[in-house]
Write a structure and sequence with these properties.
about 230 residues, alpha/beta, Rossmann fold, two-stranded antiparallel sheet
Length: about 230
């Protein structure tokens, strides 16, 4: 697996030290730096955007969700991993809606952090088991609602209209071009971005629509009225 870089934004010194120790002897992960508050984190991010942004939510100077949004808007190829003490639904959903791809609780630090970051880099969405359980519980009742009994595309869960999360301008453009039959490489050329950036948009679309393939994404987007003719 190719090497990748990480920027850490965490206000507590003991966690910064723990992260640094965890990544110190890992040859394929480069620690770009460690910020202790939101302003410093944003400054370091803008100066040298990382492949992965690892951050807490409760930061001096503001919420980490602000930095997640900033990262999604200015460097969509960067993937965001939240690591925090907040396991409530409000923080979790706000983080994913802002653009986070993974969510770990600090009481799960016994987990192999490099392995979690590698999983994120490979297209996964590492989530602490207790968070995953809460999310499953939240969406489970939808399976019994009338709106969920519509015909479904094989292999995809889809989502109900009330749970739909709006796509960004870039995500919408990628989906519209894909619906017209263009390949992801061709879309990268049209948008003057790298294929990796296009795949980042695609992963976010899949996550927002709760699907696992381009066909399912197009189906859901048409059902929700998000695709232009």
């Amino acid at each position: 697996m190719p090497s990748f870089s990480v920027l850490v934004v965490e206000d507590q010194a003991r966690f910064r030290e723990a992260f640094a120790r965890s990544l110190a002897s890992v040859p394929d992960i480069k620690l770009l730096g460690m910020a202790h508050d939101l302003p410093q984190g944003r400054q370091m991010f803008d100066a040298c955007p990382p492949d992965i942004l690892l951050l807490d939510l409760d930061l001096p100077g503001g919420s980490g969700i602000e930095l997640i949004r900033h990262a999604a808007q200015t460097c969509p190829a960067c993937e965001v991993m939240v690591i925090t003490v907040f396991g409530d639904e409000q923080h979790v959903l706000a983080s994913f809606e802002a653009g986070a791809c993974g969510y770990l609780l600090k009481d799960s630090l016994a987990l192999d952090l490099p392995a979690q970051l590698r999983a994120l880099r490979c297209g996964g969405s590492p989530i602490s088991p207790v968070i995953a359980r809460r999310l499953l519980s939240r969406f489970a009742p939808a399976a019994h609602s009338p709106s969920a009994r519509r015909p479904a595309v094989a292999g995809g869960a889809g989502l109900s209209d009330e749970n739909a999360v709006a796509l960004s301008e870039q995500e919408s453009r990628v989906l519209n071009l894909a619906a017209k039959g263009f390949t992801f490489d061709e879309i990268a050329g049209f948008m003057a971005v790298s294929p990796h950036t296009v795949m980042t948009y695609v992963k976010r679309v899949y996550r927002k629509l709760h699907v696992r393939s381009k066909v399912e994404a197009i189906y859901e987007a048409r059902r929700l009225g998000w695709l232009r003719d």
